[in-house]
Amino acid sequence: MGTAQARFATMNAPAPTIAFSDDQAQAHDSIAAALRGIGVDLDNDTLTPAADGMGRVMAVVGKAGSGKTLLLAELVRALQAAGVDIISGDWEGRRRKDRRTAAVLAPTNKAASVLRNRGVPATTIHRILYTPVYDPEYEKVAEWLAGQGDRPVIDALTDIAMDRAKQVYEATTSVPAALASAGLRGSDFITGWKRREDPLDIGLIDESSMLDDRQFDDLREIFPFLVLFGDPAQLAPVNQSGQMVFDKVTGPDRLDLARIHRQEAGNPILDLAHALGDPDLSFAQFERMIHDAAARDPRIEIAARVDADLMARSPVLVWRNATRIRLITAFRAAHGAPDDALIPGEPLICDGIELPLKHRKKRIDLEARGLIKGAPVIYLGPGARPGFSRLHVLGAESPRFSAASIVKIEKPDEEEPFIPYAARMGAAFLHGAAVTIHKAQGSQWNAVQVFAPDLYAAAQAGRVEAGQALWKRLAYVAITRAEEKLIWVTRYALARPKEALGIEDLPNPTTALILEGPEET
Question: Which of 53, 52, 71, 48 is nearest to 61 (CA)?
């Protein structure tokens, strides 16, 4: 048994023994050796101060089910055991000369939340690029919560509130969550945001197939040591000619995971995903494979109609925008949504922040809290002021706040979207009951509906991306968004919803931050 396997098998007793595969162990040991070169010894749990030197980028590349997340989680545990501080982006505390730091990042909130649900302390790239500026009084509270200072006396906080904040911090290790539990809003203790000036040591980047060149350059400015985790079979960012940032990593710094780790009873979703690697596989043959899998395993389902109830929280995945718009229109009609307003529970997708340059601080504030392009959001209701909406950002650590909103409802055969109401500036949203497969990348849902007629159209178009048929890349990304169940929809039809839209199913933690977005000027 190799070094990594021996270490992993003995950690965290009495948990069940899990052994790395040979390629995982080799990747772990290669990264551990590189970390020793920068003063982080995972085998002996020792640290030495960082030294100036050339930056290094390594890549762990493998298809779905190859064990990338397991390897990432073990590396994080080993870094923590060695004394490396894992930076969350909420609050960093005092800088020490001997401190070594690492951050686990993902391009989107949803991708970061997938990791957090698996016990990995991940945050988004935006939360690391921009750091919060705390009010000096509440900075003292943060230092006390983190064990870096004495308990302060704050006029705005009673002893009971301070005790509650300490209890929440010990449970969550989140300073904003702790201060929110004491009755504070984010604007009470965060006075602004600034671009990070001081670098960190180690960056572990998940879903790196989604990174564009600009994001990659930003990360290299912050982290002298980067490890990219990515899937070469996914879709590359738009306008990058099918190339992914980890394609630039070659030689011993590129670590390929070839073995596929299936569940004991088999994983039909992964089986179908990896079947797409066959260059001779036709769409008709693949669809027959799906029908065969559905006949023997309930985790695969063939549906003649789209499930409108599932669309409320798990969007239908499509290729063409025209399909997306028609399905959204049918969904809203089925739920009786009026043309001139949203109803609570409708899903939205953030389409960016529309603010002039003078409101850069407000843009950073919203992006850092999770309202970034592509973020899935649930509409909760109108805000306290005209043009504002109360929102729940799925996957965000503090998901609920109010923001100035520009909601665009697209209609079939109409070039311009209908805007039921809008602020003059703020966060822009599209409807989220159906999304393109490109936008779904990085997200996962328990059950996923894939609209097969669109993939058939892509197959008929005969397009190729980075040497592979586009329909196969689309199908691969679409079906691997499903954690538990894949629903293959075969017809242009929508089943009537069985339940009314609502927000009762959404978590509403008592520690949620209630924040305001940009005001109109």
Answer: 71
